[in-house]
Amino acid sequence: MAYADSPKYTLLYHPGIPGRAEFIRLAFEATGTPYTDLANSASDGYATVRKACIDPDALSSLGDNPPVFAPPALQVKGEGKGGGDFLISQTSNILSYLGPRLGLAGEDEADKLWVGQVVSTALDLNNEVHDTHHPIAIADYYENQKDEALKKTVDFRKNRLPKFFGYFERMLKWNEKQQGERKREGVYLLGSQLTMADLVVWQVLDGLFFAFPEEMKARTEEFGLLLGDFYGSVKGEKGLKGYLESERRMKYSMGIFRHYPELDRQS
Length: 267
Ligand SMILES: N[C@@H](CCC(=O)N[C@@H](CS)C(=O)NCC(=O)O)C(=O)O
Fold this sequence. Notes:
This protein is mainly α. It folds into two domains: 3-100, Glutaredoxin (3-Layer(aba) Sandwich), CATH 3.40.30.10; 105-253, Glutathione S-transferase Yfyf (Class Pi), Chain A, domain 2 (Up-down Bundle). The protein is built from ten helices and four strands; from the N terminus they run E-H-E-H-H-E-E-H-H-H-H-H-H-H. The protein has a four-stranded mixed β-sheet, with helices on both faces. Helix 5 (109-133) packs parallel to helix 7. The longest helix is centred in the middle third of the chain and has 34 residues, at 146-179. 37% of the residues are buried. It binds glutathione (GSH). The site of glutathione (GSH) has 7 residues, from loops.
């Protein structure tokens, strides 16, 4: 596709895994926003991602943009300071940039900040999930840190999961009260329509269902509002449903959400 006809947004990330880029994909997919997923769509796409986001010696990125520490990054056509492309990184930063532009940040300034607050909390949980299988060294194999991973995961499942789930349920209950009789199409964390908060929390829950199926089954009764009503409602959202059933939705494998049966709840 010629540059002039290409979508405004390009996502730069590793190929073949949902990873942290999935939060950004969900925002595009749920709103029907065109985007290019560079490493998954062009044969030399990942070379560009590596140059822009992974080169440890880079003193700039994609033209005049500052260096990036790690993917994901978002390229926005023509929005750079000198008229070139704009490049930003850090998942939470990208999501707060896109939120108001895609209509996923609520209705006013307070909503925008509250959406950011829930998104940041869900991304904290996402990081803790990652640390269950890599508690010691990010660049080393899981097999070399199995004992520590088990200790970390037992605490995570026992203490951290219910703390995060309890918080998200309190958000759902708070929002239900705020909305009163207002008509809503689904179950939301903030306001009466889908926001970035719903998408990010949903994605972490979905990954947890894959990584710890036994733990999640056991928690479903206790957190029915979150793991039943909310999870099911967001999954069925217009725009998202088709994507989740499509081939574009990549499978979990060796990314943040991994299924190691020995780390799951033992019956
Ligand atoms: N806090 C960053 C974390 C970025 C990150 O850890 N990216 C991973 C892929 S999901 C990566 O490639 N990391 C390489 C590294 O940290 O050395 C974000 O949310 O964007």
